[in-house]
Amino acid sequence: MSYPVTLGVTIDFSSGPVFGYSFTIGDPQHGILGTNVLANDASDVVDVSSSTGRVSIKRGYQLLQDQFQAGTASLRIYDPTGDWNPQNTASPYFGKLMPLRKVRVTGNDSFLFAGYTTGYNYTYPKDQEIGFVDIECVDAFRLLNMANITTVTGATAGQDTGTRITKILDAVSWPPSMSTIATGDTTCQADPGGARNALNSIKNVEFSEQGAFYVSPEGNVVFKNRKSIIAKSGQNPTIFSNDNTGIGYKNIVFAFDDKLIINQANITRNGGTVQNAFSSTSIDKYFPHSLNYGALVVETDADALNIARAYVVTRAETTLRADSISLDLTTPDYAAGVTAALTIDYFDTLQIKNVGQDGTIIEKTLQCMGVAHEITSSTWTTTFTTSEPIIDGFIIGSSLYGIIGTSVMTY
Predict the structure, then answer these.
(1) What share of the chain is helix, strand, coil (3-state, %, to 5)?
(2) Which terminus of the chain has fewer Cβ atoms in its 10 Å neighbourhood, N or C?
């Protein structure tokens, strides 16, 4: 596909979680130090771009659950030769079509999704039409969700949240080359132990930090600490508008509701007492909207109270928001829109302006919290899910988050 985006789809039939061509001594293409990767098995990468007829990608933050979800992708591959028939012994893929093989999708060589196959759904239409297979994929959250742990070696009291996440990843032998973990701004108590999966353990640490843990489009796990998330607010926005003052868009959805209000928070650390924060003003205006979260691995009740206060001060009020904005990449002379669609990711700032037919204006500055691509042979739509910052903080010099008496202070 090329219009004006070149779609790339590859499948690596080798086992193990590591993406990319494995390092091969003496190979001029795959034996490059600092470029190729160390892997469990030799890579077995096949480019299926030319036979891919449809791609659907969804990655993002679930605002109502306050956490990042597993990214998913669905690929439709047409099969006029029967190569994707798992019982075809003459197929070059015979014996290779199995779950948890590695898939990467790119647009103009920018990574859009990296994950692992979970299912192959075959369709053979009547009247001799070309058969196809829909390959379902999920990102690395799937692997971490399937990995059970009981104790975490080296998970001692007083270590920062980033170190704790690294210890959990080490416990399930996650490749260090596939992780970018920041030093946390909060310290943890000793690991409580007990049977659980690695992903839930990491999400406990993520919430304790009020940070972010997610999978990048390249397939790497990423942990951002609280300060780095706050610092991203309002920085270097990409401007979208329908009046030719920014990148044009296909569609925009605004919402003004109470879904994200939190005016009462009850937070408890493991072994601690409930710490409560509330906003009487917000409760009187909107009725109670409560958050309850327990068994956190923060060290002290004071840490738990800080989380409760941060939630309430950030979420006590509601405002008009742009839930999503969609771009049509087949729009003529749309180079800036194509670049935005292929490069914007979580926490990037979007300034969105809509001028109505009556001349009234809605303008919001928000963060990208989700990216979806719907691609066919003749269409490409990219949709960004947007939100106010998930945690506020006072930023000196910011026209949005540095206003004395208006902007909020958090820990």
Answers:
(1) 20, 35, 45
(2) C
Bridge partners for 104 per DSSP: 10, 114
The sign of the CA dihedral 173, 179, 180, 181 is negative
Task: Output the pTM of the full model.
Answer: 0.90
* pLDDT for the residue 29: 43
Q: How far apart are CA 344 and CA 351, in angstroms?
A: 13
User: Is pLDDT at 396 greater than 50 in this prediction?
Assistant: no
What would the mean pLDDT of 369-388 be, rounded to a whole number? 95
Nearest to 37, CA basis, from 138, 144, 170, 176: 176
CA dist list (Å): 138 to 70, 145, 217: 7, 11, 12
Distances (CA, A) of 93 to 11, 98, 216: 11, 10, 28
26: left (phi over 0), alpha (psi -120 to 50) or beta: left
Burial of 213 per CB tally in 10 Å (0-12, 13-18, 19+)? buried
* Nearest-angstrom CA–CA distance, 203 and 214: 10
Bridge partner residues of 365 (DSSP): 351
